[in-house]
Amino acid sequence: MRFASTLIVWFLLVLASPGVAHAHGGEDHGDAAVPRDHTLPVAPGHGAAGDLFEAVVTPLPDRKGVSIHLSDLENNAPVKNATIEAEMAGSSPWRGTASPTRATGIYELPLPRPDGAFDLTLTVTTGEKNDLILISVPAPATMATAVEKPSIRLPVQIEHVLFVAGIVLSGVLGYLLGHTGGRKSLLPVLLIGVMLSLGVEQAFAHGGEDHGGAQPTEGQRSASGETSLPKATQFLLGIRTLPVGPQVAATTVRLVGKVIPDPSAYARVQPSMTARISHDPNFPVPVSGQQVKRGQPLAALDPNLSANEKLGRQTALLRAQNSDSTLGRELLLAPIDGVVTDVHIVPGEVVTEQTMLAEIIQPERLWVEAVLFDLPLAERITGAMAETRLLPGKRFRLKLMGTSPKLSAEDHGLHLLFAVEKTLGALRLGIPLDVYAELETVSMPLAIPREALLEKGGQPVVWIKTAPEQFTTRAVMTGRQAGTWTEILSGLQAGDKVVVQGQRQLASIR
């Protein structure tokens, strides 16, 4: 009876031990594989490039055709509004037209996929651009996907602590059972030790590994550093490229600036006398952001007169047989067309000639004021580019309008004025800017944008696109910097497609 109770305790201990409880924590032994229908694996070789565009063919579920990811060959941007005519050569020739989907750059083609390899010819037309792309698709392979079993696993450190605690507890209980009733027996201790050793073997032999087929991930990196990234993922991450080539750029000096109005497209509205702002429904107070026309009334002002002045004006009005009782009311008019900003018109308030009641600007005509402290550079500046952290990714071309002939008494610098060539509706008055004033131009045989450079082990590296869905890193040697461009002395060749957007996402793939 004592031996039976010992076996029961032993059985419960083994079931509760971490080695058994977590030995099958969701891993796959490959015995539940479900074969899929013919699919085309997402890998280089199922995409190709023409002269202008690049296309990648991937299967749709249930053999209902294929999807086509169409991108620009140079910058890798998705191409929308394209017409794609497809033709399949071989023993069963076929022709069809791809239909656009809601996703930009992705099209669906009702292609009856054969069991063997085939060639697919795509004729791409968008606007005035035409291109021909030939894609060689190998025979589809039958892929098995393991059924994923949900599980909850503890961290490895906690599992080990629980397992050791189970061993100690089992040893104590085994000792007590072996000495129950004054009779010593080593059999329970030996049995518990043997079964715990089996628990150890299971705990460490099944440490979360997968015994079935590994699931493909969206991005995979080989031992040689090549990274495979499906075109669909490239679209999601916004991967963009730029061909390496010669570049003529200007050396720059960074200045601090801010957006100001164009003097010829800006007006301040002030009264011509001391007066009280009237509350008149015929002249509603404008609001900031309101469009106004030149000559449009903005407010009505009643002159602030003394008793004698009022009597004199009334007498003059009566002699002129004028029944108007406004005693010289003044209408505040908009001097230019534009948008009202900084409105300070409050009915009932008494204002003077120095009071600024409103400002009117033309938002499409803006200037930038920058401060220069290196005075000898003033004669070398020809133009500038500007950017701001408030508008990431946007750059504004500036045209030099003039340089102040004297130092500012406030900051002891020279003030430079630039006109913004194209505001694109993004800039606002008062926005601080980093102004990169351009000096002499520099000709570089090979150059890439500054943001394309990353650092690996203290060495500058770049990502380049080697195939429709393949990327790799290249160590480079840099030279001069001019504006936003960096000269490349070695590591790249003309025509290499350098990743200029999304390179940090590529670097994070393991």
Can you walk me through this structure?
The chain is α+β, with helices and mostly antiparallel strands. 17% of the residues lie in helices and 38% in strands. The strands form seven sheets. Strands 12, 13, 14, 29, 30, 31 and 34 form a seven-stranded antiparallel beta sheet that branches. A six-stranded antiparallel barrel has the order 15-24-27-26-25-28. Helix 1 packs antiparallel against helix 3 and helix 1 runs parallel beside helix 4. The longest helix is centred in the N-terminal third of the chain and has 23 residues, at 156-178. The protein starts with a helix and ends with a helix. 26% of the residues are buried. Residues 12-45, 142-154 and 200-217 have low confidence and may be disordered.
Which descriptors apply to this entry?
single chain, alpha+beta, Immunoglobulin-like, conserved putative lor/sdh protein from methanococcus maripaludis s2 fold, 4 domains, 7-stranded antiparallel β-sheet, 6-stranded antiparallel barrel, 34 strands, 38% strand, elongated
